[in-house]
Structures are given as C-alpha cells and as structure tokens.
Amino acid sequence: MQLIKSHPILEFSHGKIVKFSFDGKDMKGFEGEPIAMALHANGVHIYRITPEMKRPRGFFCAIGKCSSCFMVVDGVPNVRTCVTPLNEGMKVETQTGKGTVPLNMEVGNNE
Amino acid sequence: MKNEKLYNSGVLTELCKGAVLPPKELWENKKGGLVIIECPQRIPCNPCHTSCPTGAVVEFKDINDQPEIDYEKCTGCGMCVAKCPGLACFVIDLTFSEDKALLKLPYELTPMPEKKDKVWCLNRVGEVVTEGTVENITEPFKDSTKVLHVSIDKSFVDQVRSVRVVK
Amino acid sequence: MSEIKKTDILIVGGGAAGLSAAAEAASYGAKITVLESDLHLGGQLVKQTHKFFGSKDEHAGTRGYKIADIILKEIEDNKENVEVHTNTAAVGFYKNDGIVTAMSGEESYFKLQPKKILMATGAQERIIPFPNNDLPGVYGAGAVQTLMNVYGVVPGKKVLMVGAGNIGLIVSYQLMQAGVEIAAVLEALPKIGGYWVHAAKIRRLGVPILLRHTIKAALGKDVVEGAVIQELNDKFQLIGEPKKIDCDVICLAVGLTPTNEMLWQAGCEMKFVSQLCGHVPVRDAKLRTSHPDFWVAGDAAGIEEASAAMIEGRIAGLAMSEALGLKIQQENYGIYQERLDSLRRGEAGEKIRCGLGMAQITDWGNK
Ligand SMILES: Cc1cc2nc3c(=O)[nH]c(=O)nc-3n(C[C@H](O)[C@H](O)[C@H](O)COP(=O)(O)OP(=O)(O)OC[C@H]3O[C@@H](n4cnc5c(N)ncnc54)[C@H](O)[C@@H]3O)c2cc1C
Ligand code: SF4
Ligand code: SF4
Ligand code: FES
Asked: Looking at the CA of B37, which ligand is closest?
C-alpha cells in the first residue's frame, strides 16, 4: 500500500487489515477506513465511468458531497465510497453508468 | 517593481518592515543571539508574544499588530522560534566562533538530521547558498516542532532561512 | 419509520463550530444530539497538522487536530447530555412539523424532533472550469488533506497546487511534510491571498509561487499526467506561451462556499454576500436566523476561520440554551463577542466585517 512512511508531526494508527476485492482482484485495506482511501492506497484512481460521456472519475471532495466516487459495493450501486467504511470481504466494483439496483435487494428504510 | 512581485509571493525584500536586522552594537557580542522576526503583515496572531518568557516581543495592543521587539530583553532562547505558527521567528547568534554564526530555526520536515550532520542552507527562495553544521536540536514545547541550531559562515546570516537535510 | 427522536438541541455538523456549541450548551444542561456525516468528529480541524493562528483563547500555536481533542475533552465532562451520531447526515427539514430526517450510512434513515437546531455544516469546495477537470487526480484540497493527514495515504508524486489562499499555501506545506513534491503553486491574482508567512514557509523550501498564472487544462487520458498553465495579464487575459507542467495530482484550492441547504428548506432569509463566499442566512448577533428555532455558526455562516467558528459556536450554544429557558452565564455573551471582534479587527478581517455588515441585523424584534 502507498502509505506515508514517516511524518514529522503525525503518527498514523491504522486498524485491522482486511481483505476486499476490487473488480475481482484481491486487495488489502484497513477496517473502518473509507473504501476510497483503501483503493487509493492500492493505486486505484478510477472509481466509475460516467453514464453519458463515458468519462473516468475518481474521488474529488472526500467528504460525501460531490458524488464523484460512486461505486458498486456488495451489489449496491451509487455508494459514496469516500465515506463508507471498509469491511472484511467487501466486493467493490467500478460503476459504469447510473447503476441499477438488483431487484431481490431490500433498499430504503431498515427499521 | 521586481521586488514587489517577489514580496507578493512571500519573499522578504528590503521594501518592508520585518527586513530589519537587530542593531549591530547590541547584536555583535550578544551571547545566545537575538531574535529576527519576518512577519510583515497584519494578521490576527500573537503566539510570538505569548510564548516569549522575557517580554522581548512587546505585548500586542491589538491581536493584529505586527510584532515589535525589545532587543534589550531578548535572550535568544528560541521559544518563539518553536511556537510561531508562521515559522517566522529565527535567532541568530554572532558569538558562536570567530567566523561562524549560530542560526536557530524551526524545522518540521523529514528526514530529521542528527548532531554534527552537514545540511544545505537555503535562502528565502529555496536556493542553496552554503553548507552548515547541525550543532544541536531542541524541541522546546515537545510538540514536534524542532529548533535546529545550525552553524554557518557569518557572511550568510542575512540570507539563510531554511535547511535541506540530505540523508 | 416509527420512532421520532426528541432532543433539546440538534447540532448538524461536528466540526469546530458544532463541537464548541455542544460544549457550551451541554454545560448548562441542555440535551444535545450531534449529527456528523463523516466517520469521525472534528470537521476541518482534524486535517490540520499546522499550528493555528489567533489568540491563546482559541488555542493559537496549537496544531488543528489537537484543538479538536481539546474541545472533545470538554464535552466529556457533560457527556450524559450529548449524544453523537457519526456517519450520519441531516438530509431534510419539514417545516410543518419541525421534523429533521437523518441518513445513517447509505441506507438507513431516522427522524428527529429538536426544539432548536444549529447548522454548523461548514463549507464545500469550489471547482473551476478547465478541460479535463473531471479526470481522476484532480482533487479538492480538503480531499488531499483527508487522504494524507487523516488516513496516511500518499496522494501522489508531484502536485500542482491551484490557488495561493491560505488553504493552497498550507496544504502545499503539508504535502511537503508528507514527502510529496510540489511542482508549483498557481495564483491568478497579482498577490497571494493567504497569509504572507504561509507563503514564505514554502518559498524558502524552493516552491515557486507563480502569480498571475492559471491552469489551462489537465492532461491525461484516464488519469492526470500533467497540466498546461499560462500567464495572465492584469485584465485576466492569457498572455505568453502555454507551459507544460509535469504532475500526477492537480489540487484545487480555489475557495470554499458555505454549506447550508437545510436553512433554505426551513425558509430562512438568505442573502448572497460575496465577502462571506456565497449564500448565507441573515442572522442576529446571537447567530439566530430568521427562523426562530434555527441558528448558524462557523463556515456555514460565512467562510472565515476555525478561531471564529469556535467562538460563534459558543455564542450559538449560549443563545440556544437561553432560548430553551436554561440558566446561562449572561456575561459570556460579552466575553465571546469581544474575542470575535478582536479577531476581526485587522486587515484580514476587513472582508468579514464588510460581509457581516450585510448579513447581520441587530434584532429580529418579534419576528
Ligand atoms: C487547509 C486549511 C487550513 C486552515 N487553517 C486555519 C488556521 O490556521 N486557523 C484557523 O483559525 N482556521 C483555519 N482553517 C479554517 C477552519 O478549519 C474552518 O474555518 C473551520 O474548521 C470551520 O469550522 P466549522 O465547524 O464551521 O466547519 P467544519 O470544520 O468544516 O465542520 C463541519 C462539519 O459538518 C459536517 N456536515 C456537513 N454537512 C452535514 C450534514 N448535512 N449532516 C451532518 N454533518 C454534516 C461535515 O462533515 C463537517 O465535519 C483552515 C482550513 C483549511 C481547509
Ligand atoms: S528568542 Fe526567546 S527571548 Fe528572544 S524573543 Fe524569542 S522567546 Fe523572546
Ligand atoms: S506568532 Fe509568528 S506569525 Fe504570529 S504574529 Fe508572531 S511572528 Fe507573526
Ligand atoms: S468524493 Fe465527493 S462524494 Fe465521495
């Protein structure tokens, strides 16, 4: 992972290392840290392809406000990966187009 | 005109307040050195004053005031060097040796040098102007801002404001 | 959705302003709920590795991320009064019944019914138009900070910084601390916008600050592989030859604009004030908006500084507690106001003073 090795001010305390997959490839990241950061640390910079112009997009704001980082996570499209924590075994995929919600999946309020 | 452009991008020029050095007669034989503060703009900030144990940085009437120095009181202790968030305070001790001065400057980068290491000394636009030797490293507030004590040739004291450590 | 959560004060945003408001109001016994959309509290503060300006009362000379810890510790003292939900965003306000909806994570929602609401939602980054500005590798300055200062990930090898305001200057310095090279800092104006001392810090490390320069395009097919820059004349027209810059990250630090959508939903009187960097609510000196139950503080009220955001948070916390009928420390109003005024007295505060002249009213009367 492309992590900062030595820093004059900060000490980074990362959580547990977990495995996840990106477009079928195995990768490692830190549990609880945003998916987008884990991908960046693994050298992945393209997160989705836009619907109309087919342009590659990465993240931009990293605070959940700009929708640039939408990806398909465990089958769910349009997940803001910059604010969604990474978990063991997550399946992360590049999102192409608007993304469709699988019909057999419950979305919305979970009471 | 050229100077104005430099100043507008953050390089001190003789045009402005802050470019003045301490009075020679006080400075030349002052053990420990005297402070130099390069802070030429009115900004809401005063840690140079609040961190100074001797009152050498005169109390601000308004927090936006520029620092005023009472050189009589400065001991060259370097507390302000470590505390100033603008990294704008330096101490220069001209009594280090016959031909060398000791420059105390803030450092918060990697790699960290060790005592006796040679370092490149940079001017206000980052050009290497001379080589210096790290004589001591302190961390007055234990907050990761180090104060490097670097000996340099006396003729460079009004130029050197940073160092590059090569490991 | 069954249950509606009741609370005295809802604070939207757990940054400098929101946390300070929580600390103040909790000390008077108000029951507070804080919603923070990020995974952790602290807002902009936690990304700041540099020592802050201001005065001792606002922890000047202390590093930003440590300041967040100081306020959080204060809240600890009254923690039974403060409920915090991170990874939870306030998404809507319903005027008729005063209900706020919140989204936790990506898919679960709940409702709240607060008596008073503080919007302390901070700011959003601006973007400027240029060909390929959507390429991966064109990042907001805040994103670069999050990446390197919060998660310890290397943002890239060589960065072109666009904008020499405080953010552009400080983030350039922080990048150097993380071991990243800065190709150059571009500034369209003939003068840096940030504090001179911040510019001096990177200049003496050899970083060029190119005044009167702009970015013309990002280069690259799938990711950033470089940039084209060009000089501007005093009418902001392109002059001279375009120049190619080698970089793999283009960091935009071209300004912030207040985030305060929910205030529109609540029907608060809003005004465009360029000195405060966007649309802001009209407010009184105690930071109440035209809606009797809505307050605003920090960057959401106008882009300023963490020092001011913390004091504004205190004032709002005080005023909301007073409005709830709690016994407050009246003299704090004066103390906080004086601190705010003194921060705003200088050259840098002129813009803010001017902006407040337009956005602040003395009294809402019986409105
Ligand atoms: C690079 C940089 C350097 C700076 N240096 C200094 C300095 O030296 N001195 C100084 O005084 N100031 C400095 N500042 C400015 C300072 O950080 C900000 O002015 C201050 O943090 C504003 O505080 P705030 O609480 O208003 O906003 P923020 O700190 O931005 O906090 C807002 C919070 O609200 C959350 N939020 C937003 N929308 C929602 C929603 N709908 N639901 C739930 N939560 C939401 C956000 O996630 C965020 O955590 C700097 C800023 C930057 C970017
Ligand atoms: S060097 Fe010491 S005595 Fe001199 S101004 Fe700085 S803090 Fe004060
Ligand atoms: S502490 Fe540093 S930046 Fe602040 S006023 Fe003093 S010299 Fe200037
Ligand atoms: S990068 Fe902007 S929403 Fe994720």
From this structure: 3
Phi-psi region of C309 (alpha: psi -120 to 50; beta: other; left: phi over 0): alpha
Give me the CATH number covering residue A28.
3.10.20.440
- CA B56 – ligand 3 centroid, Å: 13
- Protein fold of C127-252: FAD/NAD(P)-binding domain (3.50.50)
User: Per the domain annotation, does A12 fall within a domain?
Assistant: no
Domain enclosing residue A43, as ranges? 17-96
End-to-end CA gap in chain A: 38
Which residues 66-105 in chain A show a CB within 8 A of chain C? 66, 68, 76, 79-80, 82-85
Spell out the per-residue pLDDT of chain C, length 367, in tens.
558 999 999 999 999 999 999 999 999 999 999 999 999 999 999 999 988 887 888 888 899 999 999 999 999 999 999 999 999 999 999 999 999 999 998 889 999 999 999 999 999 999 999 999 999 999 999 999 999 999 999 999 999 999 999 999 999 999 999 999 999 999 999 999 999 999 999 999 999 999 999 999 999 999 999 999 999 999 999 999 999 999 999 999 999 999 999 999 999 999 999 999 999 999 999 999 999 999 999 999 999 999 999 999 999 999 999 999 999 999 999 999 999 999 898 777 899 999 999 999 988 875 5
Q: How far is the CA of A109 from the centre of ligand 4 (A)?
A: 23
Judged by its nearest atom, the ligand closest to the C-alpha of residue C197 is: 3
Can you tell me the ipTM of this complex?
0.96
What is the DSSP track for A59-106?
Answer: -SSSSS-S-TTEEEETTEEEEETTSSB--TT-EEE-EETT----TTS-
B111 cis-preceded (ω within 30 degrees of 0): yes
Q: Is residue A6 part of a domain?
A: no
Q: What pTM was computed for the model?
A: 0.92
Give the β-pairing of C270-273 and C278-281: antiparallel
Decide the pairing of beta strands A95-96 and A48-49: parallel
Q: Which helix (H) or strand (E) holds B134?
A: strand B128-138
- Name residue, tokens 């310095």: C173
**DSSP symbols for A28-48:** EEETTSBHHHHHHHTT----E
3-state secondary structure at position C23: helix
The answer to whether domain C4-124+256-359 has CATH 3.50.50.60 is yes
Phi, psi dihedrals of residue B4, rounded to the nearest 5°: -60, -40
CA–CA separation, C67 and C50 (whole Å): 11
For chain C positions 262-281, those within 8 Å of chain B (CB to CB) are none
Question: How far apart are the two ends of chain B, measured CA to CA in Å?
Answer: 39
**Given the CA of residue B76, which atom of ligand 2 is nearest to it?**
1
Domain count, chain A: 1
Q: What is the DSSP string of C140-153?
A: EHHHHHIIIIIS-B
